[in-house]
Amino acid sequence: MPYKNAKDKRKSNVRYRAAHPEQHRTRCRESKRKNRAEGVAFLGGVCANPDCEETENLHVDHIRREDKTSHRIWTWSRARRFAELAKCQLLCIYHHVEKTMAENRGEIPRWAFYR
User: Fold this and answer.
1) What is the value of pTM for the model shown?
2) How far apart are CA 60 and CA 96, in angstroms?
3) Of 44, 58, 98, 102, which residue has the fewest beta carbons closer than 10 angstroms?
């Protein structure tokens, strides 16, 4: 059923999410997983370091920290997501920690302990 205005559609979506929270979470998880797989494929699917051929547990890393808009891009529209991914590279965890340490003058990034 088409809605006459966006406000009515938003109200309907809110009611649906309240009535079906698990289905909504599942749909969001699947969407993020699909979008991330699409993003990894867009970036080549392999660690950007020329000496590394890692294809598992890849991190999306912004090449220049200054260009970073956000790290929560997987729910964005396709065009906006790919515009942000154009500023990124894929790195395995080893090379991501190495690059981040170099940027932080030798400090190990906090997130490295939780992976």
Assistant:
1) 0.77
2) 9
3) 102
